[in-house]
Specification:
Largest sheet: none
Number of strands: 0
Shape: rod-shaped
Oligomer: single chain
Structural class: mainly alpha
Order of helices and strands: H
Length: 88
């Protein structure tokens, strides 16, 4: 009687403990998924902000490099005038 009853009590406690741990684990998985989604949303918001800053910087660089007469000669940056040495 005591061996059978003791075994049943131990099995019951083990099942209850396992069920509690499994439920707690599922709750923690939910919290972790929520945190990951919040992090993703924050990163995406920061990327939108970064894209705006990068585009503004790029536009600033492009307006700074344009010649004032409106014409651009692509080859001026490739072919430069070489230094002339005195042949004395």
């Amino acid at each position: 009687m005591s061996t059978s009853t003791g075994t049943r009590v131990m099995v019951g406690l083990t099942i209850a403990t396992s069920a509690t741990v499994i439920c707690a684990s599922l709750v923690m998985v939910g919290f972790i998924c929520r945190d990951i989604n919040n992090l993703y949303d924050e990163v995406m918001d920061d990327m939108v902000e970064f894209k705006g800053i990068a585009n503004d910087a790029w536009q600033g660089m492009m307006t700074f490099q344009r010649p004032s007469n409106g014409k651009s000669n692509v080859f001026t940056s490739i072919f430069r005038i070489k230094r002339q040495y005195d042949s004395a």
